[in-house]
Amino acid sequence: MESRRLGRSGLDISAIAYGNWLTHGGQVEEDAAHACVRAALDAGITTFDTADVYAGTRAESVLGRALAGQRREGLEVFTKVYWPTGPGHNDRGLSRKHITESCHASLRRLQTDYVDLYQAHRYDSTVPLEETMTAFADLVRAGKVLYVGVSEWNAEEIAAGAALARDLGVQLISNQPQYSMLWRVIEDEVVPTSEKEGLSQIVWSPLAQGVLTGKYLPGQQPPADSRGGHAEAGGSMRRFLRDDVLTRVQDLKPIAGDLGLSMAQLAIAWVLQNPNVAAAIIGATRPEQVQDNAAAAGVTLDADILARIDEVLGDIVERDPAKTSRG
Question: Where does the record place a coiled coil (predicted)?
Answer without folding.
Answer: none
